[in-house]
Design brief:
This protein has 108 residues and is an alpha+beta fold. It has 2 domains: 46 residues, no CATH class; 61 residues, no CATH class. Helices cover 29% and strands 31% of the residues. It is built from 4 helices and 6 strands, in the order ααββαββαββ. The strands form 3 sheets. Strands 1-2 form a two-stranded antiparallel sheet. A hairpin with a 2-residue loop joins strand 1 and strand 2. The protein is elongated. The N terminus is likely disordered.
């Protein structure tokens, strides 16, 4: 477990180093330019689905299911608190939720 974070950073660096020409769709759409460089559409709208109805567990259940070093993102008010595992947010990037009856959108 000691090498988990550096390995993740190495993988992220390697993925980020892939030339844009290898990562884009076969026939990308050009949508103008930014500082002289073409802008491409790599993902269609709504290609990354939001979490619209999150299901929660108690802290004790979460502690039994999650690794101690697992990163979470959370928000709290005076009477309510929630958190989301960042590995789940990597696939969804946004959670539409309510906190103390107030609509929120948590983004990652």
């Amino acid at each position: 477990m000691k090498f988990r974070l550096p390995l993740i950073l190495l993988v992220a660096f390697l993925v980020a180093s892939v030339p844009l020409s290898l990562a884009q769709r076969p026939d990308p759409e050009v949508h103008g330019t930014f500082e002289g460089d073409p802008m491409y559409t790599l993902l269609e709208p709504n290609a990354i689905p939001a979490i619209d109805d999150p299901e929660y567990v108690t802290g004790a259940v979460a502690a039994a299911q999650m690794a101690a070093e697992e990163t979470v993102m959370g928000v709290a008010t005076g009477t309510d608190a929630v958190c989301w595992s960042t590995w789940q947010l990597d696939r969804h990037e946004i959670v539409n939720d309510r906190l103390d009856d107030t609509p929120i959108a948590a983004t990652w």
